[in-house]
Specification:
The chain has 255 residues and is mainly beta. It has 2 domains: 120 residues, HU Protein, Chain A, CATH 4.10.520.10; 115 residues, Coagulation Factor XIII, Chain A, domain 1, CATH 2.70.50. The chain has 3 helices and 15 strands. A 5-stranded mixed sheet has the order 8-15-14-10-11, with no helix packed on it. A 4-stranded antiparallel sheet has the order 7-9-13-12, with no helix packed on it. The protein has a 3-stranded mixed sheet with strand order 2-1-6, with no helix packed on it. The chain starts with 14 loop residues before the first strand and ends with a strand.
């Protein structure tokens, strides 16, 4: 808890935004929603209280709250559940698989969870939503650079190395990879993947979220134009998405 006191705070308007994130662990392509967080500190709450009751002493209030905080932590350390002013209850939960017997049970760790009360849930039932936006988690290719010439003018040197810069580029999954699809002057390419040229996974030198570096496939023909297609199911953390996401580059010409 902060040792300083902030007596100034602007109230929000009682509404917020919802962001929809695609659930890649659901083959149906469904989304889950998150209400945008706007954190309020103890200092902010005390400042709000002082607006309603000017007799409240901020220093005393913070001291009392710090003592209560210490007691809550001590109660949890004893394995007790804590009802926090009927707003909800802190309780101890176990993380891990239960197993079929006591001998096979695997408890990874104990952690604290919180269950909100009926009163708390009813308090947000009339909260307004300003807008709903969809978060795009697909990779994006911002630039393509020929590492042999150092240029990013849309030309790549045959059998030499190239670099993709962008976001969420990291390759993951056996069906993922970097592909070159031959295209016409308008950038139209065949969706028949058997005609695409795949970059050998062993020739990928850097495989990072913002940067990919690799050698061009030897099967690419000089003088022809291609679109670079990136396919991955990588995500933050150790798990992969069930479905693949893709990105397509601007037209590049092999010379």
């Amino acid at each position: 808890m902060s040792t300083t006191t902030n007596i100034n705070y602007s109230d929000t308007d009682g509404s917020g935004n919802l962001t929809l994130y695609k659930n890649y662990f659901d083959n149906g392509g469904k989304y889950y929603a998150r209400f945008d967080r706007r954190n309020v500190t103890i200092d902010n709450l005390i400042a709000r209280t002082q607006k309603k009751d000017i007799g409240v002493n901020a220093i005393t209030a913070k001291h009392i709250l710090s003592l209560i905080k210490a007691e809550i932590i001590e109660a949890l350390q004893r394995g007790e559940s804590v009802n926090l002013m009927d707003l909800g209850t802190f309780y101890i939960a176990a993380s891990g698989t239960s197993g079929n017997t006591a001998e096979t049970a695997e408890i990874k760790k104990l952690l604290v969870k919180f269950t909100s009360s009926k009163e708390t849930n009813e308090a947000v039932s009339k909260l307004g939503i300003n807008r709903i936006v969809i978060a795009d988690s697909s990779p994006s290719i911002d630039s393509v650079t020929d590492l042999f010439t150092g240029l990013n003018d849309g030309t790549l040197t045959s059998k030499k190395a190239a670099r993709l810069d962008g976001g969420r580029l990291k390759i993951s999954g056996s069906d993922g990879g970097i592909f070159f699809a031959e295209c016409d002057t308008d950038g139209i390419y065949s969706e028949d993947e058997s005609l695409w040229h795949k970059v050998n996974p062993e020739s990928i030198m850097r495989n990072l979220s913002k940067t990919l570096e690799f050698f061009l496939p030897e099967s690419l023909e000089s003088g022809k134009s291609y679109r670079i297609i990136l396919r991955t199911n990588s995500r933050k953390g150790n798990e992969d998405k069930k479905t693949f996401v893709s990105a397509v580059s601007d037209i590049v010409t092999v010379k």
